[in-house]
Amino acid sequence: MRMIAEFEKTGRMSWFSHLDLQSTMQRALRRAGLPVRYSQGFNPHVNLAFATALSVGCQSLCEIMDVELQQEVAPERFVDDLNPCLPDGLKVRRAGLVEDSAPALMALMQEARYTVCVPGVDLRANVEAFLRAPSVLMEKRSKTKTRQVDIRQMVHALDCAFDGEASTLDMILEQNNANALKPDLLLGALAPGQPCRAVRTGFYAKGKDGGRVGLFEAGLGQK
Amino acid sequence: MLYDAIEPLLSGVQKPARYTGGEVNMIQKDPKRAEVRFAFCFPDTYEVGMSHLGMKILYHILNKREAFYCERVFAPWTDMERAMREHDVPLYSLETFTPVKDFDLIGFTLQYEMSYSNILNMLDLAKVPMTWEERERAGAPFVVCGGPCAFNPEPLADFVDLFMVGDGEEQIVELCERYRAWKQRGGSREEFLLEMANLEGYYVPRFYESLYAENGDFAGVRRLSEDVPARVRKRCIPDLDAAEYPDRIIVPFTEIVHDRVMLEVARGCTRGCRFCQAGMLYRPQRERSLETLTGLARKLLKSTGYEEMSLSSLSTGDYSHLPELARALVEEHSCNKVAISLPSLRIDSVLGDTLEQTQAVKKTGLTFAPEAGTQRLRDVINKGVTEAQLRASVSDAFQKGWSAVKLYFMIGLPTETDEDLEGIAAMAKAVLDEYFAVPKEVRQKGLRVSVSASSFVPKPFTPFQWEPQNPMEELQRKQRLLRDRLHLRSVTFNWHEPHLSFLEAAFARGDRRLGRVLLAAWKRGCRFDGWTEEFKFEEWMAAFADCGLTCEQFAHKRYDLDAPLPWDHIDAGVTKEFLKREWKKALNAETSPDCRKKCHGCGINQFVKGVCTACE
Predict the structure, then answer these.
(1) pLDDT of A75 over the 70 cut
(2) For residues B464 and B275, is the Cβ–Cβ distance under 8 A?
(3) Is the pTM of the predicted complex or chain greater than 0.80?
(4) DSSP readout, A143-167?
(5) Which residues of chain B neighbour A89 with C-beta distances below 8 Å?
(6) Angle at B482 between CA B481 and CA B488, to 5 degrees
(7) CB pairs under 8 A between A and B
(8) In-domain check, residue A221
(9) Can you tell me the distance from the alpha carbon of B41 to that of B123, in angstroms, rounded to the nearest whole number?
(10) Same domain, A87 and A111
(11) Within an 8 Å CB–CB cutoff, is residue B20 touching chain A?
(12) Number of CB atoms found within 10 A of residue B239's CB
């Protein structure tokens, strides 16, 4: 069996890396005494996968992990046992069991949703202009090279509210095996030079009717 | 709250998780209810400091007491330091983001001399005056220091209110208790320090002065009043098994140098290597019992979730109950996939073949430290390893499937000649021979022999404390010679630039005048000297010149056997007579067998009986 769990990574916990999350979660599972399954080999580790990495500094309300279990555990017990073993800022919200044969969540993921708060500026006009444009080219830098990408097509929804003090952006961005747009690149197009303090608020898969469904629900629905 | 000022800096620095705290098992208390707040400062990065066992022990001991709150502070890396200075963020604690200047006591642990510039830098970042005189005027917190380098406190005498010499477990509690009482009753700082100076193991430099001869030679430390002891005797925990030890330790998010449970099986060492300061300072050797250790291991693994555990001490292979302990730990914890790191030399004898087959024992690499290349020089330094032993061990290891061996040596040891250096090359070749003597079908492919040579640094309280360090040119010549001789297939030779060892030698045996040099070097931008990329040798030399001193006059000094030494007013337990005897034996290449076999009268049994004397 595998347990799929949705968890938050907020506050101070946003500052450690994806690699650090692996060991932190592994040790928490061990402290909780949950019947996790280990890999074979010289350095056995908990068989544990995450839907996708989260940028350092970015918070999330909807991270998803996928843990292999030696024996079945009730999802409620999994949540109740694990949460006291996690540091403040990491918190499991819900969990569900799937068969070993169920597809990996990474394969189902299509979109990620973020909220970004930008203080001191009204970005509503910039957002309208962005949405009207047929294409928006931005430079995407990786470790080895820089290339031009059209980010417009990867923005599936974008909304901006302004309360007189800050703009709050709500964005749904492409996030699948082939393409992924991170919120900082979009913010670079809307408000160059602004620091990007994003919160990931959702992951989506494609539903049977072609519409948007939550990734967690989609993962469990594939039993 | 200070965190709001820190957070915006984090996206611009490397490894931000070093600066945010909040780890599992971090102690959370209401700071307002703490009667004494202690800032435990480690003068290096988070990854280095969090690997340090002493900090884990003392953090646990203080925080177990409701009235005290001990919080951690590390040196920010240069990028974070820049950001903090730019945005006027003071040095703060990870537990509650409290500025260091708001604590009652600021404690630094002195693990190596080359972290001293970080102490000044951290005080500056904390906006705490650096010298005790300035702090007195400003009413700033006391700065206290402990750790092995506190045995020669003089280079830091201008900056520190109080040194704690010896085992810290009891002392740190006593200090906080006395501080609390002093704070409650009110009184002068001097009154408090005078009270402390009269307890065992505390050195208050303001009550002592340094004397110098006209030619600039150090001429002794003298107490300024009869109210303080002439010599400060180290503190020693007689019964290690009864000493407090943490049953939960902080589990960092981000990888640290030693990222595992460390179980301290013993303190001290009976081997008596003559270059080894720790072997002298931590006498007598004391052990924890099997029951205590298995109980601690169980609790620590449960509370941390760690997947690895190491047995820690100066010489774990000598722990009396090692086979039983190793077997008990493997049997109990292998089902939870916990790997136990054991000293590589003893794996076979300790565990036997059946357990070796399991994955529960982590082979941490085959390392040997003969330290010197010929039997003569190994006898001089009293390192009881023979070439035959080395050959037998590596041959056995190669037959069992090892193919990588690390050999550690020192160059510049007293009485060393080029013949001893040739001996290092010969030992590396002996290892190659043993490998090729194992049949091809049996041995593992990919032989790698790594030879490391560090430069000898004479240290206080060792039989070599009177010896000069080799000049840098001589060390460099020796390195070149070794590099030529070790230009062999499958052998890599590692060495360090001797500049850092040169500076280390000055501070290890230096006197109070080095405080001025340290301050001048800090002003010239020196910090993180132990990190090659940050070490500014030219600035250090300029700092010596600023003060009218040279690094040579300290590092290359041969002290007369009867001359006063800058650390004579500290009593580490081993007597000067013993060290002199050992020095004379060294010059004659005469060995002193392991203290468990024969007592050499080092003087430590005036304090307490350890394994050495218990055997008698």
Answers:
(1) yes
(2) yes
(3) yes
(4) SS-EEEEE-GGGEEEEEEEE-SSEE
(5) 22
(6) 120
(7) 71
(8) no
(9) 10
(10) no
(11) yes
(12) 9
CA B530/CA B497 separation, integer angstroms: 12
Q: What are phi and psi of B234, to 5 degrees?
A: -65, 155
Model pLDDT, residue B357:
46
pLDDT at residue B497 in the model: 85
**pLDDT(B359) > 90:** no
Angle, vertex CA B68, rays to CA B62 and CA B70, nearest 5: 60
CATH number, residue B284 = 3.30.750.210
For residue B335, the chain A residue with the least C-alpha distance is A38
Determine the Cα–Cα distance for residues A51 and A111; give it in Å rounded to an integer. Answer: 12
pLDDT of B343 strictly over 80: no
- Find the domain containing A81 and state its range: 2-102
ipTM of model: 0.90
- Dist. CA B51–CA B145, nearest whole Å: 19
Beta partners for residue B411, in sequence order? B455
Any CB–CB contact under 8 A between B16 and chain A? yes
Q: Say if residue B616's pLDDT is above 50.
A: no
Tokens representing B83 are 């950001």
Place of tokens 């002891």: B229
- Return the ∠ at Cα B152 (arms to B60 and B317), rounded to 5°: 60
Enumerate residues 6+ apart whose C-beta is below 8 A from A92: A5, A6, A7, A78, A79, A82, A83, A86
Q: Which two tokens stand for residue B478?
A: 């020796």
Q: Is the pLDDT of residue A222 over 60?
A: no
Examine residue A222 and state whether it is found in any structural domain, yes or no: no
Q: Answer whether B94's CB lies under 8 Å from B69's CB.
A: no
Closest CA to B501 of B491, B493, B509: B509
B429-467 per-position pLDDT tens digit: 999 999 999 999 988 888 999 999 999 999 999 999 999
Among A177, A181, A126, A176, CA closest to A151: A181
Distance in angstroms (rounded) separating the CA atoms of residues B376 and B458: 19
pLDDT confidence of residue B610: 63
* B373 and B326 within one domain: no
Same domain, A136 and A73: no
Please count the structural domains in chain B.
Answer: 3
Same domain, A83 and A116: no
CATH number of domain containing B461: 3.30.750.200
User: Is A90 part of any domain?
Assistant: yes
Tell me the C-alpha to C-alpha distance, in Å, between residue B191 and each of B145, B208, B221, B222, B228.
19, 15, 22, 20, 12
| A223 assigned to some structural domain | no
B327's tokens: 């077997």
Quote the domain boundaries for residue B305.
Answer: 260-362+574-616
Per the structure, how many domains does chain A have? 2
Contact call for B337 and A38, based on CB within 8 A = yes
So what's the pLDDT on residue B360?
56
B391 in the same domain as B305: no
Name A83's Cβ contacts closer than 8 Å, sequence gap at least 6: A91, A92
pLDDT tens digits, A105-137? 888 999 999 999 999 999 999 999 999 999 999
Longest Cα–Cα distance of chain B, Å, equals: 78
Q: Does A85 share its domain with A9? A: yes
As a three-state string, the secondary structure of B33-51 is: HCCEEEEEEECCCHHHHCC
Does residue B598 form part of some domain? yes
Statement: residue B504 has pLDDT above 80: yes
pLDDT digits (tens, 9 = 90+) for B97-145: 999 999 999 999 999 999 999 999 999 999 999 999 999 999 999 999 9
Considering the domain architecture, whether residues A172 and A120 belong to the same structural domain is answered as yes
Token pair 């974008």 is at which residue? A158
Contact A28 B303 (CB under 8 A): no
- Decide if A31 and B304 are in contact by the 8 Å CB cutoff: yes
Contacts of A26 in chain B (CB under 8 A): 305, 307
Q: So what's the pLDDT on residue B1?
A: 81
- Please give the mean pLDDT across all residues of chain B: 93
pLDDT (0 to 100) of residue B350: 55
Residue B354's pLDDT is 45
